[in-house]
DNA sequence: GACCGCCAAACAATCGTTTGGTAGACCCTC
DNA sequence: GAGGGTCTACCAAACGATTGTTTGGCGGTC
């Protein structure tokens, strides 16, 4: 599982001048839909989530979507724009999950917070939607793109802030710091959490809510 | 301080075939010391911390250190190795700060934890040593390098775990999760904290310790 | 015939890295 | 103290691969 079989194929074929790109599937000439565009978005989403922005080339995405790199520019004006759209879709997906979770949650504010955290973790780790969180770790200097992505996340983080405020935290704790600590603990999970590991997501959400609520010191 | 005058020089000169690299300083032929090697490490550290691994080229580092890209390979066998050494130095620096802080700290375990967190934040945000924390956000698939860096951080994270255990947390809270939440909140700070912002580091350390100890719910 | 969606091929730039050479500091010998 | 030799630390220049992107054309559907 550790070796990447792509490397063998990568060096094994190209003998001519340039790329001689060949998409994995010559996908039977789809009729007249824009379904191919979404296929590109899906491919890009999975790749970006795993290997990061710089770790994925336009050719990687194209191959996964069954086309050539140049063809991507029919659908998206640049790699930055493609990433931004992938990111936006991921944020939307997590937001939708949050809405659904809150609709089914009880009224007690801490229980609502726990439900929200679980939805967040689900959307973050269940699929490969980690794009939503990998992005803030962009090079600090890549201001243009980074700012667009931050704007996309603003509304979502505001939701989290409101849920926290509903819990009525102690007035001597800065609510801004509170939210940042929570988001930090939350967004750090992709670094260590693995499916099938020691703790499942519900347990993580429960423990984090409990910590936020009562702290770790014994009563 | 925000604009990079390098960019102007970068595009303004190169007209010939390849690089035509010119280091910013022709640093007067240092006598017979290995001081240049540390200059490379310093340059690399500052650049990596700000722009990330993929955002920095060997030519960038070389220019900052006053030499040409090929010369770096006299000191370091590869870019990966250079980064690993920068990372190791950053971890060592933060560890040293932690030792100093603990030596001057009182005996009460929560106070010790707070001192440790402050030292961590200091080492993380004060200088450009964020390499220590930016690194885990490497592409998940870059196994080789990522594993080396994780090993470098292991001893440090064990220290944090021990400090937390000394606080005698409630037995119904998984101490592993506790540590991960704490590290998450801590390591997320480079994303939002800015010098001169709303909260200074001591305040952040105090608030985080207080949250970990007593939680956010009112008594 | 028009337009959509894609291919094929190239473009210029940049990347990490290698190779061969060389100026100067050092050491040894005469 | 002059001369030779060696080693250190670097320069200069390239190599091959890969990058994001552009351009022109073409088969198929309407």
CATH superfamily of the largest domain in chain A: Tetracycline Repressor, domain 2
Order of helices and strands of chain A: HHHHHHHHHHH
Percentage of residues in strands of chain A: under 5%
Query: What's the number of domains of chain A?
Result: 2
Given the structure, what is the number of helices of chain A?
A: 11
Detail the poorly predicted runs of chain A. Answer: 1-19, 26-32
Task: Detail the topology: elements first, then pairings.
The structure is a homodimer of 219-residue chains.
Chain A: H1 5-13, H2 35-51, H3 58-65, H4 72-75, H5 79-103, H6 109-126, H7 131-134, H8 143-166, H9 175-187, H10 189-192, H11 201-214
Helix pairs in contact in A: 2-3, 2-5, 5-6, 5-8, 6-8, 6-11, 8-9
The first copy, chain A, binds a DNA duplex (30 and 30 nucleotides) through helix 4.
Give a description of the structure.
- Two copies of one chain form a homodimer.
- Chain A is mainly alpha-helical.
- The first copy, chain A, has two domains: 28-77, Homeodomain-like (Arc Repressor Mutant, subunit A, Orthogonal Bundle), CATH 1.10.10; 82-216, Orthogonal Bundle (Tetracycline Repressor, domain 2), CATH 1.10.357.10.
- Helices cover 64% and strands 0% of the residues of chain A.
- Chain A has eleven helices and no strands.
- Chain A has helices at residues 5-13, 35-51, 58-65, 72-75, 79-103, 109-126, 131-134, 143-166, 175-187, 189-192, 201-214.
- The first copy, chain A, is elongated.
- The N and C termini of chain A lie far apart (46 Å).
- Mean pLDDT of chain A is 82; it is low at 1-19 and 26-32.
- Chains A and B meet through helix 9, helix 10 and helix 11 of A and helix 9, helix 10 and helix 11 of B.
- The structure holds a DNA duplex (30 and 30 nucleotides).
């Amino acid at each position: 599982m550790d070796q990447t079989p792509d490397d063998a194929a990568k060096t094994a074929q190209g003998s001519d001048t340039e790329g001689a790109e060949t998409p994995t599937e010559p996908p039977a000439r789809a009729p007249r839909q824009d379904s191919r565009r979404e296929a590109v978005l899906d491919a890009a989403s999975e790749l970006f989530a795993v290997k990061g922005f710089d770790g994925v080339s336009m050719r990687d995405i194209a191959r996964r979507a069954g086309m050539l790199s140049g063809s991507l520019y029919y659908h998206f004006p640049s790699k930055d724009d493609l990433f931004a759209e992938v990111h936006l879709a991921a944020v939307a997906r997590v937001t939708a999950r949050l809405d659904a979770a809150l609709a089914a949650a009880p009224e007690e504010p801490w229980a609502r917070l726990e439900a929200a955290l679980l939805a967040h973790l689900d959307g973050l780790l269940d699929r490969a939607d980690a794009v939503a969180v990998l992005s803030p770790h962009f090079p600090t200097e890549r201001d243009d793109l980074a700012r667009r992505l931050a704007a996309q996340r603003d509304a979502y983080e505001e939701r989290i802030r409101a849920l926290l405020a509903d819990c009525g935290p102690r007035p001597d704790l800065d609510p801004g710091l509170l939210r940042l600590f929570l988001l930090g603990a939350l967004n750090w999970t992709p670094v260590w959490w693995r499916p099938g590991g020691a703790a499942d997501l519900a347990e993580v959400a429960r423990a984090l809510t409990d910590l936020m609520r009562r702290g770790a010191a014994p009563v």
